[in-house]
Design a protein that fits this description.
Layout lengths: L1 H27 L8 H27 L2 H6 L2 H24 L6 H9 L5 H11 L9 H39 L1 H20 L6 H6 L4 H37 L2 H4 L2 H14 L1 H8 L6 H11 L2 H16 L7 H28 L7 H9 L8 H9 L3 H31 L1
Length: 419
């Protein structure tokens, strides 16, 4: 009975995601045409600029305090490890199955970014609802679960919109500039040929005609060497300038600080500073209406992103057979490799005293390694164009598998932290 109760707790949020995804697919078919290309693009911008920042800011401001940040210091490290290890596994997957260049950003993002938002917000508090739950008093457990899950969502948003977002952006720009790179390569090769053609070493043939003056010949040879050195130095300087220019173009602060990241920073400041909490967050606060409005806007983020996944699925199902190795690879990374590595990391950190001994907290840390890809990947791919269909197929397949894998992992994690 305990297994089946936990099975239903873990299964329900995944089923909700699948149902809303199916609705998005229905709304996107030609017969209805509600979520066409233009509508999807506009909805994407609403999620990116309005709904996403609102949900992160409001949840952080409400649940995070300075005390929580100090106690839960290991969670940012844990989430960062899920992203870095996922990226490394995604890179190996790209090399093994030879993923096309235009899908590199999508694969790395899906392997790195888990759904650290709505699934933990539903699963972790739900574990506490039973009166005979294994995590202590129901009210205390639920309060802690909301704080843990909200911080998880906020950290996920920071890493997704600063780290993964820029990975997708950089690879998208690489795809769009392939032709430009080829042109530049031709120009550089031509310039090198010009340098070789101007190589003064060919003057030695002139010396062969007049070898009476060895001193003059030596001077000319030294001149040749000096010209070659100058050419190499100037070429190196030009390469350095080009690298600095490329780096300056890639580091774009407006892109790095995405709206969701700004919302996270604001939410953390409001939550940590007591004066701001009294003015904005507490129920009797004079400006509580602002926080309440942000909550209303944020509630629309998850349904909107999930509808977009379903809407993009119409295009992706056309080439589903070609994407089968990709789907299988990402499924293995997210549901087998990452959770296994996560168990070693969390249990190791607990053994060395880096994590306080709260089983619910340890359960969430383990859960962060076993989640399906973040739904925000669909928004990123839509923003940059290319790979929308593949992204939707990956989402449908991984969330379908999550109905079983996530449930089994949750059952095992509960046993692990309580044993």
């Amino acid at each position: 009975m305990e297994f089946w109760n936990l099975f239903m707790v873990a299964l329900m949020p995944v089923v909700k995601v699948l149902l809303i995804t199916a609705l998005g697919t229905i709304l996107a078919i030609q017969r209805f045409g509600i979520l066409g290309d233009t509508a999807r693009k506009n909805l994407n911008h609403m999620v990116f600029y309005v709904f996403g920042p609102a949900i992160v800011c409001s949840s952080l401001a409400k649940t995070i305090t300075l005390k929580n940040v100090v106690i839960l210091w290991f969670m940012p490290v844990n989430v960062l490890l899920t992203f870095l290890i996922g990226t490394a596994l995604g890179w190996l997957l790209i090399k093994i199955i030879r993923v096309p260049l235009h899908l590199h950003g999508l694969v790395l993002g899906c392997c790195a970014a888990g759904n650290l938002g709505n699934l933990p917000l539903i699963i972790v508090p739900a574990v506490c609802k039973k009166r005979n739950n294994s995590f202590g008093d129901v009210d205390v457990c639920k309060k802690n679960a909301l704080a843990y899950a909200s911080l998880s969502m906020a950290l996920g948003s920071i890493y997704i919109w600063s780290y993964v977002y820029n990975i997708v952006r950089i690879y998208s720009s690489k795809v769009s500039s392939v032709d430009d790179s080829k042109v530049k390569a031709v120009i550089i090769a031509t310039e090198n040929d010009d340098i070789d053609s101007e190589n003064p070493s060919k003057l030695v043939t002139v010396d062969d005609k007049s070898q009476t003056n060895d001193h003059v010949k030596q001077l000319e040879i030294e001149s040749v060497v000096s010209h070659q050195q100058i050419a190499k130095i100037s070429s190196t300087k030009q390469k350095i300038r080009n690298q600095i220019k490329v780096l300056a173009e890639k580091i774009n602060l407006k892109v790095l600080f995405a709206p969701a990241t700004i919302g996270t920073i604001i939410g953390l400041i409001i939550g940590i500073v007591p004066q701001f909490r009294k003015v904005l967050v507490d129920e009797n606060a004079p400006l509580f209406v602002i926080q309440d409005s942000l909550v209303m806007l944020g509630d629309a983020a998850i349904p909107a992103m999930t509808l977009l996944v379903g809407a993009n699925l119409v295009k992706g199902l056309e080439g589903v057979r070609k994407q089968l190795p990709l789907v299988i690879g990402i499924t293995i990374v997210r549901f087998i490799a990452l959770p296994a590595i996560g168990i070693g990391i969390v249990k190791g950190a607990t053994h060395f005293g880096l994590i306080h001994h709260d089983p619910l907290y340890q359960f969430l840390l383990l859960l962060q390694f076993a989640l399906p890809p973040a739904v925000a990947m669909s928004t990123m791919v839509q923003l940059f164009g290319g790979g929308e269909g593949e992204c939707s197929v990956i989402m449908l397949a991984t969330y379908s598998c999550a109905a079983v894998s996530l449930t089994l992992w949750c059952t095992f994690f509960v046993w692990l932290v309580l044993s």
